C-alpha cells in the first residue's frame, strides 16, 4: 500500500499501532479526520495528550482517578477489609455495575505475561502485599480472568500472601445465569460440577 | 458506563467519534495508550495534528499530496487527456495497484449525499468541469462505487459535461474474475448479462 503523502503515511502508521486496528482501517480513520473540520482532530489529540500526561492513579487501589484517593476508596461505607484484585478499570466498572460488592479494589494494571514481557514488577503487586502486611485486610478476592496468565498471577500473589493467614478466594466459575448446559464448554461445565454448592445455599443467594 | 476519571472519559468520548469505533473499543484503546510509554501517545497525536494541519492536495487532481502537483499529474508519461473520476485516495491507490491505467485522476473527495448534507459544492466537481472547459480532455471515466450516491454523482457530472461533447464512460460492472455465478447477487448478474461483450473481445483483453 503506497500512500501519496508522507504526512498521511505517518498518521496511518501511528494509528495502525493501536491494537486491533490494521493499515486499512487506519487509512479510513485518517481520511475521515481529513474530511471533518480541523477542530475535531484538535479535540481528539488534545484529549489524548491530556489523558496520557495528566491521568492519576488512586494511591490506595491504583485505579484510574482524578483525585489522589479514588471515590470508592474514599467512601466510608465501603468495607476496606475486603479487597478484590482485578486487572484494570474495566473490571472495576463491571463489578460496580452489579451493585453486589461493598469492599474495595486493588487494580494490578495487567497480568503476568512472560511472552509479552510483563513480569510481577511491572504490576501493582508489591503495594498489595504491603497493604496486607500493614494489617486491616481480612479477605483477598481474586477476580482476574481465568486464563493461563490470570491463573499464574493469582498463584504468584497467593504464594506471597500465605504467610499472613488471611482468607483468599476466587470468584465462582460456572455456567452463566440463563445459559444452556449444552452450549457450555467442557472445562466450565466440569468446574461447575466440581465446585457445586449445597442446594439450600443456592436458594438463599437469591 | 461510568468512568472514574474525567480525563479518561473525554479521551474515550473523542475516540468514539471516529467511524466504526464504539465506546467499548474506545476505552480499550485509551487503556492501551495508558499502558504504553508516553512517547507512543505523543507520536500518535503529533502525527495526526501534522497531517490534519499541513496536508496538501494536488492542484490539478485534488489527490492528497506532499507537493503542489502530485507525482501522477507531474509524470510526463501519463495521458492527461484521459481523466478517471474517483471518490478518494483509496480508489487512486486501488487503480494504481492494477498497473492498467495510464491516464490521470480527478479526486472528488466524496459523493453527493443529501442525507449526510454533502452537496455538489462540497466536492471538487467545479474544477473538473473547468478542466474540461479549458480543453485537452478527451475522455472522462467514472469510477465511483455503484451505490445510489455514486450513481447520483456520476449523473450530476455527466449532465454538466454533455455540452462539451467528450467521451464519457463508466468502469465495467460484472462478476469478479474467479467468482462463482451462483453466489453473485441478481443485480450484478443481470447487469453483466445486459452489458455482455463480444467473445473475441474478451479473449483479446487477456
Automatic annotation (TrEMBL), chains A, B:
GO terms for molecular function: DNA binding; zinc ion binding. A zinc finger (C4-type) spans 58-73. PROSITE patterns: RECR, TOPRIM. Gene3D superfamilies: 3.30.60.80, 3.40.1360.10, 6.10.250.240, RecR Domain 1. Keywords: DNA damage, DNA recombination, DNA repair, Metal-binding, Zinc, Zinc-finger. GO terms for biological process: DNA recombination; DNA repair. The keyword Disulfide bond does not apply. Residues 81-176 form the Toprim domain. It comes from the Bacteria. InterPro entries: DNA_Rcmb_RecR (IPR000093), Rcmb_RecR (IPR023627), Rcmb_RecR_Znf (IPR015967), TOPRIM_dom (IPR006171), TOPRIM_RecR (IPR034137). May play a role in DNA repair. It seems to be involved in an RecBC-independent recombinational process of DNA repair. It may act with RecF and RecO. Belongs to the RecR family. This is Recombination protein RecR.
